[in-house]
Amino acid sequence: MYLTNQYARYGQYKGGDPIDILISNSSGKPIYEQICQQIKTQIMDGTLTAGEALPSMRALAKELHLSVITVQRAYEDLTRDGFIETVSGKGSFVAAQNQEFIREERLREAEGLLQRAAELGRSHGIPLEKLTGILTLFYEEGD
Amino acid sequence: MENSILVRDLTKRFPGFTLDRVSFQVPKGRIVGFIGENGAGKSTTIRLILNDLKKDGGTVELLGRDHTDPAVKNDLGVVFDACNFPEAFTPLDVEKVLSGVYSVWDGQAYRGYLKRFALPERKRVKTFSKGMKMKLSIAAALAHRPRLLILDEATAGLDPVIRDEILDILLDFIQDEEHSVFFSSHITSDIQKIADYVVLIHQGKIVFEEEKDVLLDQYGILRCGKGTEVEPGDYIVRRETGVSAEYLVRDRSAAGKKYPKAVADAASLEDIMLFYIKGEAS
């Protein structure tokens, strides 16, 4: 059957392991967003590598017992953000050219953390120079 | 042809009940859930679609053809809540009869399904449990390779394990994007899991036809104390409880911001159905 072929082909890339996606029904976060976020995380941390095949939308919907539209929406968002590419008739693959997207995503993450540090500093009277000093120290320590 | 089922203004009058200009569609490659309380008109709608019952008005297209076209039945798999096979039949007898009825019969696929559903080929139907009978009906419906599967209350009265297996079979069926499923149930949790779209019928009328994710991700219930008045434009349906008022809203995050003293929760399909049936519209 069609499904088994999809999985067999996918299995060749992944040593037979299906992709790890954990859906929470009580998190209040839309399910398509959870899928999107988890695939992004796996691309960014290298669990999924460029060129690797993702399960077809329909196969993933079946695996997770979700509606196809939900998975389709997640794949559309991932495509829009440059994380995956969909070749019609062949399926979806992790995009090769996503270094810049990854960096941007990381930058947003860093911004969030720095914003929190700035808020803490401001509300507790820690001077900015002190904070930038700490940041510089941490940054250069890693070299 | 983008729609597997296209129903427009379908009407049927009975003494004391009218199915009133029912319109909805089942897009190709999708699962559409059809919900409503008992007696709302779900089974009547399905029997009219199948032309088992004569309509008084409206049009029904199945797979691009008028539903009265006899050729349509070959591409259609139908499963009802009750198993219609004679009790004395074995699954192999069922095959003998049905392979003569349908122009296409995939015996290999049929026996594959029997094996997969753990149905003994040579045991009589009367020894089967309700879940096994349902799986036999589904195996028979799939064996003539339909492109559209219509199920009327197929999961009613089955335990959660078998219902889950049936959801699996339906998701398997739509792995082919030319296939679609129209699936009536009053068990909204099954539909909540796998349906792409949801159609709610109440007292013979379609209340809404909506993408399921929109219902679950955007709709919500706003619970307010006596002090908060919600403007009529901000809600769809209202329900009074002893101590508070509850409102079904189309955009729960906007409603939560506008009425900060109220609690805005996500709504399940069951909540939404109950609101429409029990509440007063704005």
Features:
A: 143 residues; Arc Repressor Mutant, subunit A; 6 helices; 2 strands; 6% strand; disordered N terminus; B: 282 residues; alpha/beta; Rossmann fold; 2 domains; six-stranded mixed sheet; 15 strands
Explain this structure to me?
The complex is a heterodimer of chains A (143) and B (282). Chain A has 143 residues and is mostly helical. Chain A is 61% helix and 6% strand. Chain A has 6 helices and 2 strands, in the order ααααββαα. Chain A has a two-stranded antiparallel ribbon with strand order 1-2. In chain A, helix 3 (57-64) packs across helix 4. The longest helix of chain A has 25 residues, at 99-123. Chain A is elongated, with a radius of gyration of 19 Å. The model of chain A is unreliable at 1-16 (pLDDT under 50). Chain B has 9 helices and 15 strands. In chain B, the strands form 3 sheets. Chain B has a 6-stranded mixed β-sheet with strand order 6-7-8-3-9-10, with helices on both faces. A 5-stranded antiparallel β-sheet of chain B has the order 14-11-13-12-15, sandwiched between helices. Chain B has a 4-stranded antiparallel β-sheet with strand order 2-1-4-5, covered by helices on one side. In chain B, strand 1 and strand 2 form a beta hairpin. In chain B, helix 3 runs antiparallel to helix 4 (130-143). The A-B interface holds A 1-3, 6, 28, 30-32, 56, 58-59, 61-62, 65-70, 73 and B 29-31, 164, 167-168, 171-172, 174-177, 193-197, 211-213, 216-217, 266.
Ends of chain A: how far apart? 53 Å
Shape of chain A, please?
A: elongated
Number of domains of chain A: 2
Q: Helix and strand succession of chain A?
A: HHHHEEHH
Q: Indicate the multimeric state.
A: heterodimer
CATH architecture heading of the largest domain in chain B: 3-Layer(aba) Sandwich
Radius of gyration of chain B: 21 Å
Largest sheet of chain B: 6 strands, mixed
